[in-house]
């Protein structure tokens, strides 16, 4: 934390006993701003506030981890291209003047202006605020499919990516050792991904290349299932066609217009009547807003907190919301809300921070308005599908544009990421499993996918609508 500004005093209370909750103290001459969540929206909000306020406010960031996770590159972590720390950016190291508090928000007392949270060691705490920015993001979207919660794993956090990397490697090694029956070996080499959006498409694309690198003599079978009639249904059809063509050419079995009927320990039942024996079910059907916002007692739209164009909450001018958890009016498309994308979340975080500062007398509030700049889907190797500024691209050119975009968008680690890409192009991948994350520690139904459940520690938070 940066030293206090000249002319102010820090009030340091005595350390609480293990049974007493942490409570922040009030510094009368500086307003207290609390940002909840450090995803794309929360990180940009905290960084912009740090630069805008310049010590004129006490800024606190509440987040379960001490890093910002660049989610778009997570499939490359699970595929062994990037080392885990490459896609994480230190919050303390990149947010000067921002106090980091490790913890998961449990509830918000709007009338008392307090955020109650649980720390990583189970201790309860609360943060008082004069301005609140809710950027709690989203969690895995669940569907009422029997067996999915018990047998599938999501792909929203670093623990899940590390688990998948180890799990895929382990299944390929067990299949190769030859001690199982042919049917069991075939099941181990079969990987089912549910959801043909951004995440599912990239996981399947990179996953197939990863297993081919592990064992080319016995190629793995990757199946990508989606209920929609095409991959990437939210994007231009030309991008969908590019992704479909690349995946099929690579050997991925793309099943559109198909859904999972039931998941079991031995495999997956599809709604067309086929049973697919497998030991791996990867759930990428999308996300839903963090249920915390639905518990506030405020107006929501499909689980997202309704806000004004200035990102303030109606009737609560001291509360702002942005990112996946906020239903932000799309001024470029009247009557609609902005989609839940990283592109919007990052820009909303910046706008929310500027409007928070304006509400404290530093600037003028502005409505959020942003035209999409295009989309990019990394399909592994030199392949990608992109449409920067509406221009559809495919092949190596799209791959170069996609990686260039990611390097520009990352708030740190650019050189390290580029170095890993160069090494992956020149050297074979390391097919080893570290065993750091076990299956039971990354449940699908959790509000904290960024944290692995630890033995003997506080149970992972699970919220249900």
TrEMBL record:
Where are the annotated segments for Disordered?
Answer: 1-27
**Matching Gene3D superfamilies, A to Z?**
3.50.50.100
- InterPro entries according to UniProt: FAD/NAD-bd_sf (IPR036188), FAD/NAD-binding_dom (IPR023753), NDH-2 (IPR045024)
Supply the SUPFAM superfamilies for this chain: FAD/NAD(P)-binding domain
Task: Name the keywords, alphabetized.
Answer: FAD, Flavoprotein, NAD, Oxidoreductase
Residues annotated as domain FAD/NAD(P)-binding = 32-349
Q: State the similarity comment.
A: Belongs to the NADH dehydrogenase family.
Q: Please give the name of this protein.
A: FAD/NAD(P)-binding domain-containing protein
